[in-house]
Amino acid sequence: MISCNKDELFTEPIIEEEKETPIDTEDPSDDGDDHDATLPCDFTLDNLDPNATVIIDCILDLGGETVNLPANVTIDFEGGDIINGTINFSEGSIIDGHLLNSTLTIGGSSPQLKDPTFNFDPKRWGIVEGETTSEIALRNNKILEEAMEMSKELGVTTFKIDKLDAYFEVSKITSTVVNANFYETVEAVNVPSDFNLVMTDNTHLRTFPNGRRDYALFALRDVSNVTIIGGNLHGGRDAHDYSSGGSHEWGHVFQIKASSNIVIDGVKMLNGVGDGMSISALNFSFQPNYRPSHDIIIKNCIFDLNRRSNMSITDGYNILIENNQFLNAGRATSQTEGATVGFAINIEAERRRDSNGNLVFYERAYDITIKNNVERGSRGSGFGISIGEKITIEGNDMEKSISYLYTSDSKIINNKFKSIGGVEGKTAIVAGGIPSESISNNTISGNHIDGYGTGIIMYDQEIEVSNNTIENCINGINFVRIRDCQITGNIINSTHSSSRGIGATLTHANNVIIEGNEISVKKDQLNFVHLNNKAGEENNKVTIQNNKFLSKSKVTLENSKGLDFNNNNLVGGGMQLINTSKIKLNSNTIASEISHGIHLRESNSVIDINSNTISVTGNFSCTKTDSGSSQINIPDSNTCN
Fold first, then answer.
1. Which of 73, 135, 229, 458 is 20 to 30 Å from 114 at the Cα level?
2. What's the rounded Cα separation, in Å, for the pair 259 and 226?
3. Cβ pair 398, 375 in contact under 8 A
4. 3-state class (DSSP) for residue 63
5. Which among 517, 527, 619 has a CA at the least distance from the CA of 569?
6. What is the pLDDT of residues 22-62, one digit of tens each?
7. E strand or H helix at 187
8. In angstroms, how far is CA 51 from the centroid of its own chain?
9. CA distances (Å), 279 to each of 64, 167, 231, 298, 315, in order?
10. Rounded to whole angstroms, how far apart are CA atoms 147 and 120?
């Protein structure tokens, strides 16, 4: 064993006779030794024997030389350092991780670290903190990456960073190839595979200001089995140079590209020029070298004030996004405006049609769960599925909307929506919007919506809207050009003076069932105007059955066709049919205090009113038919009180 002031090799002495060892009552650490670990060592590592143990409690300056060690050498740390040189280890060697630094190169057969957890000290590695130059920030990037790579090679599984506040240059090409392309996830700070990076609230990695339109501060590129915990990643949007023109919306804080088995836990991603986080693939899905991202967990993170969106997913599957905070996506700061699209999360895979009209998927985003997150202050939508499949958005606490455009087999379930700042112009859930055969089998269920202009608006086909509670709205549920849909078991309750329950205007619907809903609003409990009223829509069918209409307001069907209204209960208001056709009103219970029970106004035709129980007050009639109506069937099976 070699130490600072004793360079002889110790061997165990021969014990001649066994003696009783006295009990030492003094603190062994209090030995009066004021040894200074900053003094130069008075020994070298030359000519060590195999299996030797060296204690470093002094400064061992290798003077730029290379030292070759025999097998099974152990180098322990006791406050000193090894600097300025290279050590080539042989098989079976061990070194204490405290001795690693930027001036010591490890070669030969890589030793194992004494502890698989490595505590990174920025000063020992030459990281320059605070404001600096582009060149130094670029060196910071290189130092941190090399430290992670070196420690991994030495057997480190967990790399810890505590106090660090430094800039990193990520906008320059570092490849030595002539005319090399810029790849943002190559020039970012990269973390290797099979690695755990643990940071704290004291850890701040900052983007050195630049003028590139695309880059990433932090990246996982084509790696696997990585966990990143804690830390603050700053995108630097307000210090960015936008003078070259264009949107500059692709400068992301964190990119995950073509990576798998990833956990991101408790990381803060702030003030990105583009997105807080982007998840994507390498190459296109139809190419043989396509590598998607998959098996990813993003949890307990904070995304705040990222200029484009807080998160975008363009390609990936089996992704869980849980218990995060998504704040102020796309919002302006005192120095910069937001960029499109201002979503908390946007799932935006790319697809195009070929010359034959067939869909070709360039990117695929599917099997994604967004669960138990908080969204506040988004400039645009809250969570949006632009293009994606099998997406579940569940149990989130929302201020802005959840929406989808092109998706199938997706669910928006058990979310809580609370509007802030009034109801006008706000919609909680937007389902669809552009017709496409790729939209199918989507569910909106169990959501609680409070204080929006419209609770839910439905487009396109194959949507189940069930068991939602919608309060304090202007419009509960609206639909546009839908088919093969169910609206069932919803509760709509609003005291807003203009509030309506379920409505549709200037549109068509076919094979739609509206059943088992409870509605209490101030204006129209149902309001269908110009529904199925165009040529070619005569045979469309909407079935309205077993609903409870609980307030003193009307059900209005106007310029509409193909409606069956059966087994419903109207507690306080009646029905009015205005210029309708092909309407069946059967087996309903209607108790109206504000109007005629059923009033056929203006010109109606082919109306069947059968087996209803109707009661009215005052001078109102159970049924009233204006002149101009024809083919009206009101048999004696109706009961009038």
1. 229
2. 9
3. yes
4. coil
5. 517
6. 444 444 444 445 679 899 999 999 999 999 999 999 999 99
7. helix 184-187
8. 52
9. 43, 23, 19, 11, 6
10. 8
Residue 383 makes CB contacts below 8 A (sequence gap 6+) with: 343, 344, 345, 346, 370, 375, 393, 396, 398, 402, 403
Q: Which residue has the tokens 């002539």?
A: 178
Whole-model pTM? 0.91
CA dist., res. 611 & res. 608, Å (int): 10
- pLDDT number for residue 160: 98
Query: Which letter, b or e, does each residue of 603-639 get, where b requires 16 or more Cβ atoms within 10 Å of its Cβ?
Result: ebbebebbebbbebeeebbbbbbeeebeebebeeebe
Residue 29 is which amino acid?
S
- Nearest CA to 122 out of 82, 159, 67 is that of 159
> In the structure encoding, which two tokens stand for residue 160, read together?
């810890």
| Each residue's pLDDT tens digit, 342-355 | 999 999 999 999 99
Cis ω before 521 (30° cut-off from 0): no
Q: Any idea what the Cα angle at residue 501 is, between residues 498 and 505, rounded to 5°?
A: 85
Is there a contact between 125 and 141 (Cβ–Cβ < 8 Å)? no
Q: Can you read off the two tokens belonging to residue 333?
A: 């700061």
**Distance separating alpha carbons of residues 251 and 274, to the nearest angstrom:** 5
pLDDT in tens, 228-281: 999 999 999 999 999 999 999 999 999 999 999 999 999 999 999 999 999 999
